[in-house]
Amino acid sequence: MKEVKAQVGGSSGFINIVSLYVARWDAQKARQLCSAYAAGEPVTISCLDGQRDWSAIKASIPPDYFGGSNQQLADAYTAEVAKGTGHLEALQYCRGVGAVK
Known about the structure:
- With 101 residues, the protein is mainly α.
- The chain is built from 5 helices and no strands.
- Helix 2 (12-38) packs parallel to helix 4 (70-83).
- The chain is elongated.
């Protein structure tokens, strides 16, 4: 959460939404790393703090979310939660290829 606040700031509702986008980016990155592992490429799978591509994450967030108040973003947050993050699926994939136990 600290990293999110440092990168985007804003209302707590916005920060919560951005956290979902960060989790999606993390899941995608984990899947990429595990795919590289499965292909026999040397990879280091570790915490992504300090390694995230904030330009890509920010670009993936709908522009109308920026600057929104908690009240304005309440429905958007509910919709974003319903979409999920892909974290569990990425973890299952990584386990499937033997990259994590």
